[in-house]
Each structure stands twice: as C-alpha cells, then as structure tokens.
Design brief:
Number of helices: 26
Protein name: Aldehyde ferredoxin oxidoreductase N-terminal domain-containing protein
Strand content: 5-15%
Cofactor: tungstopterin; [4Fe-4S] cluster
Strand order of the largest sheet: 2-1-6-3-4-5
Shape: globular
Helix content: 40-55%
Family: Belongs to the AOR/FOR family.
Keywords: 4Fe-4S, Iron, Iron-sulfur, Metal-binding, Oxidoreductase
Oligomer: single chain
Number of strands: 17
CATH topology of the largest domain: Aldehyde Ferredoxin Oxidoreductase Protein, subunit A, domain 3
GO molecular function, one term: electron transfer activity
Length: 658
Amino acid sequence: MIKDIYAYAGNILRINLSDGKIRKDSTLDYSKEWLGSSGIAIKILYDELKPWVTPYDPANKLIIGAGVLLGTPAPGANKMNISTLGPITGGWASSCSDSFFGLELKYAGYDTIIIEGRAHHPVYIWIDNNNIEIRDASHFWGKTTWETLEMSRKELRNPNLHIISIGPAGENLVRGANIIQDRGRAFGRCGTGAVMGSKNLKMIAVKGSGSIKVANENKFMGILLKIREKFERLNKLENPMHEYGTLSVFYVKRKTGTVNYKNFQYYDIPDALAMKIDPIKTIEKYKIAQHSFPGCALNGCGKHLYLNEGPYAGLTTENNQWEVFENIQTRLAIQEPTFMVKANALCNQLGVDVDLIGGAVGWAMECYQRNIIDQGDTDGLELNWGNAEVVLELIKKICYRQGFGNILSEGCVKASSVIGRNSEYFALHNKGQDLYEVCRGALGWCLGACTSTRGGGHTTGAVTCEAIPENRKKKENWIKKAKSVYGVYNPHMVLEYEGKAKMVLYMEILHRINNCLGVCHFNTTWSNPEYIDLSELMNLYTTATGNKTSLEDFKKNAIRQLNLEKAFNLKFTNYDRKDDMPNLRDMQEPIKGSSLEGWKIDKEKYNKMMDEYYEIHGWDKQNSFPTKKTLIDLGLAEVAEDLKRIGKIGKTRKKIKY
C-alpha cells in the first residue's frame, strides 16, 4: 500500500511478454482525470497504440483493471474490466465481469495490469503480492478453462486461488473468444480472449495479502449504510434478481413481445414452447446453492445447478443469465429446458462468447431454412431449428476452428461475406459484432445498443428502465421517480422516439462511471430509478478516494471517456453515422408473433432521434464525428488535432448540457 493512497491500490503493473520486462507505474498518473478501470484503459490505448497496430499484433495491449471501489464495502462494488484493440470491430473493445480476481489484484497492490508484446511459447503470469513471475504454460495449453483452474490450484498449492484464463477458443484466435474468471464469469463480447491468445498468454493467477483504505471512513460508511437501508427496504418488497438472476425478466419479456425467436424472425415464442422451457421453473427444479460476489446489494444473482436427469444429467455448474436463454435457447428454437445450462457451461469451458455463438449459428440456421446453404456447406450437419445436439457440435467446431465452424468462428458478418449468396441480410450485427439485442420494440434500448462504441452491447448506453411494474400504484411511483432521475417526461413509453436520446446520454454516463468504479449496473439506476444514482456514486467515490469533485465534473469525466472511445474508433476504423443505424430487418420488417405485431422502426423518426443524440453530444449530425470545440471543452485538444489530421473532425455543434 502506497502512503496516502485511498481506494486505489496505487500501482499500474506493466508486463512485456516479449522480453520479460516488468515495471510499475503510479495509478495517480491517470486516476484524477480518468477515474479508473476502463477510463484509464482507453487513455493508455489511445496514447500508446500507433495507427498501424492490429488486434493480433504484439504491439497491441491487453489492459486489465479493477474498479476503484473494489476492496471497499461499497454496495455493488465487485466488477473489473478488460480492454484492448478488438478483433471483431477493429476498434474499442471492453468487457466487464464480476470478480474475486479483481479483489485479489488490488490486495496485491495493483489497480491495473498492462500486458504487452507476445511470448515465444505459452506462458502464464503468477502474481503473489510483490513477487511477479512469467511461467511456462505448455502443460496448460489446449485445456479448458475449468481444467486450467483445477490444474493451477494444484500447481500453486492454493485451493481458493482465483484466475482469469482462456480456453481453446482463445488459443485458436476465434474472434469471439472471451476471458473467463474461474469457471463461470465471462468477460463477454469484443474478443478479448483472442487477443490474450495471440500473446500466448494462457492465464493470470493472483494472490494478495494487503488491504484497501478509504479517505473518510465515517462519511463513507454513513453513505454506504443509507444505501444499504434503502436496498433492505426495497428487497423486502421484491427482489427477483436474487431469486432468478436476469432470467426473472422472462414473463415481462413475453408480455412486452421482445423475445428473439428464430434469429429475430419473430418476437415471441409459441405458448407451448414457453411452458416447456420456462427458465424460472428450471432454476427452481435444479438449484442447489446461491452464488454472490462481495458487496452485491441485491444479495447475488448467481445460482448453482445440478442436473440430475435428462440429456445432460450429472452436470454441476453456475446457472446462465438471460442473454444465454434468449440468444441461444429461444433464438435457435431449442426445446430441451436444460439446454441453456449445458450450452452456457460449454461456452465457458471453451472460452467463447455466447453472443458470437447465437449470432453466427442463428445466421447459419436461417440461411439453411432459406436454402441459401445446405449440408454441402455445413459438413453434412442438418441445421434445422431446434436441433440441440447440432448446436453443441457447432460450438465445439467453432472453438477448434474445424470445418464449417472455422467460417462461423469469424462471426456472422464475416461468415456471410465468405458464403455470399445474399446471406448478409440475415447477419444481425452492429459494427461487425454479432447482435443479441432485440432492437424493435424498445427504442432507448435500441439507440443505446446501436450507438455503442464497442459495437452493439446494452451495457454502454442502452436503456433498460423502459420496462415498468404492472401494479398501478407501484407504476405511478416508478414513473414519478424515473422522470426525476432520467430527466424526461416519458421514460416508460418504449415506442416513443422523443426523449430517448437524453436517456441514452444518462446511461452512457452512468455505465462508464460504474465501470470505472467497479459497480454492478444492476445495483444502480440503470435497472431501477430507486437504486444507486449518480449523486450517491459520486459521494462514495469522493469519500473513498479523498478526490473532491462536483456532480457536473463527475459526469464530465464519463463524457470525456466516451469521446476518447469515439476518437479511438475513428483512429482505427471507418465507422460513421451509418454504423449507428439498426439492421435493415429492424427497419423493413414489421414485428411478427408478439404483442407488438405489425410494428417496425420508422426510419425517418429514428434518424431524427439520432440527430438529437448527436446534437446533445456535440457531434456532427452528418457523420457522427466529434467537433473540435466539443473535444477542447473536454480537455482533449490533442485528440481534436489528431482527428483533424485524418479528416475526421466534426463541423457542426450544439451546446451540450450534461
């Protein structure tokens, strides 16, 4: 612990795998302006990566950051972040996960690890406080993440050791490979596992024996206790996240008509199928234990299940969340109720993103349905909707890049470009990244996902609070609170275009602050207007770190980060306004098979909503580029000059109000 450092551990650890050099920098070089975690990561990546660097180049960097509030008892403080130049979009790539690893990292004295270069053979990194070693990992190479965890615990003689690792997908540079913490928590989206694999880095294990201190313990604990009291009151009334995790939205999603079925052809599943695969019933039937991470104000969303019957009998694993259910189970029309559990476990073992699996296989199944591809393309596999065993086989083929799986391992966009035959229309994506988000039917969710700097993804600006309680009194109270928090008159009107740009801006700020501080989104006003808000986050931050700030400047930090992410993309890609648009299917096909039957996105109204979005960000409406004045006002004058040199500086601007 560095003297007079509060909340932060104090050190940034740089490890160069090419030459084995290790050095420490001070977190204070970045923390005031960039807060922590993903904020520090984008600053380092923007400053240090040359424009010629590619995702698998040794010069690319993999940056692992623990949130500022990790190691304190702050509610919801259990997240860490991994960022890089990503192999899917070719731009900003950033993923978060619940993390015991992040706690150990801070207890060892480090806020951030920067991985540089490429090892000459498979290696792993062992961090034991001040002792840092790069060790041979040849005996780990080829192993699943579950096998790697067990082997590392034996080798390092610690049954409670926490690691982050890649599986065969990362080793084989599958574009959607991810990094897994222990057995069941994934750094999803963006392909960070492929970058880790390109560096011949199998895993990082860490053990720390230090502690984290806060600057003003009395004030910090006072704020914390008030928040805890609020959650205790709210949790007594209702806490579906604790009971079922994000799968608790099943009945709401069906009622609102926003369930992905057969690759977005339909927006709900048949009633008979719904009764058969009801995920809440599956949890109730097979749950053996509850699982949580330190600080969660909702008392944990994780469940451990044991399948004692059926085709996957004998499997014990942490349960999946909603994304797996909707993106693999219902998207692919699988009728076996426990399939979601098996598919999630297999993806975690092999280290592949469930969104790439859903996107690529969903595209392939629809192409098979429409006779665009046949068994001659698919290694003889029949890609009929609902074929569970074929999907499991494809997951393996994708992760080992075998046959047709080698094409799918690139994601649906690149796969469609390989196949051609007018298959591109059925590859649902954003900025090249396979899309899980149901965009028709919830415009704040859609706008936030489509404008996301990391390419799709609902955790960097999308609006979840459009789904509201059904109880009349509760609904009225919710709307009143939501109006005051989000600053719009219609936060609950999912099909209303007006006001959504402003709500997305709020969420973009909230999400970046959450990620920097390491606070789970579900503990904040992202999911419920009564949960932890920006003012409470600011107060936790200032009393923990001792860094005084105003709410306006706190928000400005997040907007600065957003603009640097945007500039990073402009530096490495050719993304512009067209890449913030929904897919053609969302604008051309009316919804089928749900309570929203016949509705589709109005292209003209959506474009007006995007105009408003760009205006309130101070970005050029014609091309989405930040203007010079916007960047200078955010303290990014050098970035403005960079964008001017490459001809990507915006010209028109409207005054921003955060």
